[in-house]
Amino acid sequence: MNLKLSILDTTFRDGIQGENVEAANRQEIIQAIQAIDSLGVSYLELGFATANEAARLRITKALDLNLKAKVSAFGRTHPNDVKAILGLKVPVAVLVGKSRKRDAEISLRKTPEQNLQLIRDSITTLANADLEVIFDAEHFFQAFWEDDRDYALQALEAALTSGAHWIVLCDTNGKMTPQKIIQTITNVKELIPIKKLGIHTHNDRGLALANAEAAFSEGVCHIQGTIGGVGERTGNMDLTTFIPNICFNYGNKSFNPNQLKRLTRVYLLVCDALNITPDPKKPWVGDSAFYTEAGMHESGLERDPGSYFHANPELIGNRMRGGVTDQSGRANITAKAKHLGIDIPDDKLTAIAARHQELVDMGANFGAADASFLLFVLRELGQLPKFFEFVGLRITINKWENQPIQTEANLKMKVAGEDQWHNAAGDGPVNALDEVLRRKLRKIYPDLELVKLIDFKVRIIDAVRGTAAKVRVLVDFTDGSKTWTTMGVHENIIEACWNALLDSYTYKLLMNSHKPAAADATEIAVTAPMDITL
User: Which domain holds residue 74?
Assistant: First the structure.
C-alpha cells in the first residue's frame, strides 16, 4: 500500500511520561529532536502546553530550528490549555478530548453534552486562529466497544465539524486487538465521512504495533508513536519498528533510503537524550537485531545471509554481528575476527582458540563484549599497542555514622614517561576508578574527555561458592557518538571492574588511531580494525 504516511512523533511528550525516563540535558534533547526530524516525520509533538516550563522551552526552541516537521503542542479541550497553545505560537495543536460518557461525567464532572461543547469550542478557537488541529479521541475504542458507541461517534462529529484536520482514534489503555481495530475503522468510515483518520495505540497487551499496522492496512495514514516505543506503563507504539515494517513489508514509499539509514542512529540519540539504556533486543535497531553466534548459522551466513537475517541491516543503519561464547568453535572465532577487520593466520588459530577456551572456562563471555574480543585477538597476535603501563592502585572507602560513604581511588601509571600518583573521588569504587583513570590519561590523550561510562552490569558466574564466586562485569561506554562494551572476569569484583575499564579506554585509543605516547613504550605498527560500534 503506497499511502502517503503522516507520522506524528510524540517521544518528547507522551514518551517522556515513561518510568525512569529523564529528559534533562537540553543540548541532547535538541540533537534528538533534529535527528527525529531527519527521518521525515510529519509532526513533532514536543510537550504539554500547560505542563511545565521545560516543556514550553522545548517547544519554543524547536520553533527556531528550521525543522521540516511541523512543531505541535499538546493540550486538553479546556480553555486554559487552548490559551496556552495559542501563546506558544505553534502551527499545530494536538487536542485530547473525552469520547466516553463515563470520562466526561467522572473525570471532567461535565454532562455528556457539555463535553461535546468543550470539543467544539476548543477546536473552533484554534482553527479560527489558523492552527492545524489534530483531535485525539481518548479511549475511543473502549467507548466504541464497551460504553456508548453513539456518543463516541458524536465526539468525532463534534471535532470534525469544528475544523479538526485529523481525527485520531486512541487505544488509550491498549486493550484492543487487530480484529477490533479493523472492524471499528470500517464502521467509523461507513457512519462518518472522515477523510483524514489517524491511530494512536498503546502497548499494554503487546499489540500496539500490530494494531497500528492493522489500521494502516485499512487506509489509516496518520500514525502516532514514539522512538523506541517509550511511554508510560509498557509504552507506546514503536516507530523504529513500524516505519521499516511499513516500508519493507508493505512496500510503502513514504521514507527514502537515506532517511531509513538514519533510523538506528536516531534510536541511540533518543536513548541518550532520555537517559535510558538502548535495548539490544529491539527489532531492526537493536544491537542484537542482526547478531548470531551459533557455528552452523555463522557458516550459513557466509554462504547465504538472506537465509538467516530477514533484511540487510545496512538499510536502517544497523550492522551484522557475529559472536563468540562458550559454544563457539574456530569457525566462529575466525568469522568474528574477520568481521572486525582482522585476519587470523592459520598458524595462530589453534593457539588463539585454545586461549579463548581457557578464558571461557574462567567465566569470560565475549558475546556481549565486542570491544574486549577485538582487544583479545590483537593481544594474542601481538598487534595491540601499549598506550600506558599500569603500576599500582589503592582504593580507600570510609564510612562514618550519619555520613555517606566516601570513596577515593589512587592510581599510578606510566604514560609518556610520566610516573606519578593521581587520585579521584567517586560515588563508589568503580566510579572512582573510572574518574582517576580518565584524569590520568586525558593529559596525554585529551579526546578521552568525551568518554563516559553509561552502564555497568555485574553477574555472578559461580554462585555455589557464595561470596568467593567469580563475577563477570560488563561496562558500556560512549564518546557521545559511538558506544562500546568491554568485559572483566575475576573472583574480586574490583579486579574485574578494573580490567573492563582498562579495555574500554584502550579500545577508544585504538579506534582513534593513537600511537603509544611514551618514548619507551612498546610501539607496534597496526592499522586500526573496523570500528565495531554504532
Answer: 6-273
